[in-house]
Amino acid sequence: MTKLVIDGDVERPAQLTYADLCQFDASFQIADVSQIDPKRAGSAVRLEGILQRVAPRETVKYITIHASQDDFHASVPLAEIRDRAILIYSQKGAALEAKSGGPVRFYIRDFGACHSQEIDECANVKFVDRLEFSAEKGLDNRPHDGAEHEALHRG
Ligand SMILES: Nc1nc2c(c(=O)[nH]1)N[C@H]1C(S)=C(S)[C@@H](COP(=O)(O)O)O[C@H]1N2
Ligand SMILES: [Mo]
Predict the structure, then answer these.
(1) CA–CA distance, 132 with 41 (Å, rounded to integer)
(2) Which ligand is nearest to the CA of 115?
(3) DSSP-assigned beta bridge partners for residue 74
């Protein structure tokens, strides 16, 4: 099955399967994300759990969320999202389906409106297959304005 690759400036790079995500400690699990956002469903693991597993180096300032499937990428300051970002990975006891943004959908609570600020709804990347940690801002091809945004959604 698809693995979530976690690499860059970390002490312990990892490749996590669905089973690995299920096995994160209960303190990092969110059983029902609809309690956070009624528009979202399924269960999630807190980014904090991932950070504990891979141990980003002191120099890390950015996390880049990659979806190679449709070549969509967002790079955001780690400090601003670390306590409010989660990875939705499961729904109805199975791996999150592609139609729901699976295998992993990144989700940042209290996001801003699209392209209004660095942490915006567009950073809630779907089809995530890699998280990369770095000192400098990484690859980011989120839409910059309304026109680009519309074009993306027309797809
Ligand atoms: N992989 C991927 N993730 C993505 C996008 C995309 O085109 N590809 N669009 C982003 C944008 S611009 C927004 S506003 C939200 C939209 O989420 P929704 O499709 O669930 O409404 O997903 C974000 N995540
Ligand atoms: Mo967006």
Answers:
(1) 25
(2) 2
(3) 65
Between the CA of 58 and the centroid of ligand 2 the distance, in Å, is 31
Q: Ligand 1 pocket, 114 CB below 6 A? A: yes
pTM of the model: 0.97
For 65-90, the pLDDT digits (tens) are 999 999 999 999 999 999 999 999 99
State whether the beta carbon of 124 lies less than 6 angstroms from ligand 1: yes
Cα 24 to ligand 1 centroid, rounded to whole Å: 26
